[in-house]
């Protein structure tokens, strides 16, 4: 069964005679590029049938309006360049000036686009109003919590009792003495084990075994008030 044509499509009027010839010539001159008869007929949307288009193109070539070129079995037609209107020097200069102005305008627009794009990227990376509201709420809660913890100190309330301080001092003294004892034992045995080794080999051996010696920070703590042998160290630091 044949397919019916769509009712919504507009029917193109088929031209004949001089009207067809004028349309073909106008189109080829306007496009100013090589075309075959099939291409011209197709681009004219059927206004000039393919067979008529071929005859018109050949006729126009014979009249000198078009130039006919054959490549193998394919024939092309192009507007005769000698018949085209020359571009006056003044018009060329005006076009060049306009071209330069458009280039400058384009540069300005490109710079504007670049700036707007950067601003847009900055806006997209910024938090939204709802996110800012949530952040402000979280910050306000954190501030309130910090103020609540500072209130006892501002009022002079003792947060750690004397008994707790004494217990901490005792624990500190006990475990620091144990640490000093173990360090002394290690240093004694390490000196015996590495007595015959040069300093470089001794250091390499310690690195291989993963031994960590005291750093300058440890020495600073040892010389500070925290390791002072007198009285209640923790209690004195808090007074």
Automatic annotation (TrEMBL):
The keyword Nucleus applies. The keyword Nucleus applies. It is found in: Nucleus. It comes from the Eukaryota. Pfam families: WHD_TBPIP (PF07106). Residues 217-239 are annotated as: Disordered. Residues 19-80 form the Homologous-pairing protein 2 winged helix domain. Keywords: DNA recombination, Meiosis, Nucleus. Belongs to the HOP2 family. This is Homologous-pairing protein 2 winged helix domain-containing protein.
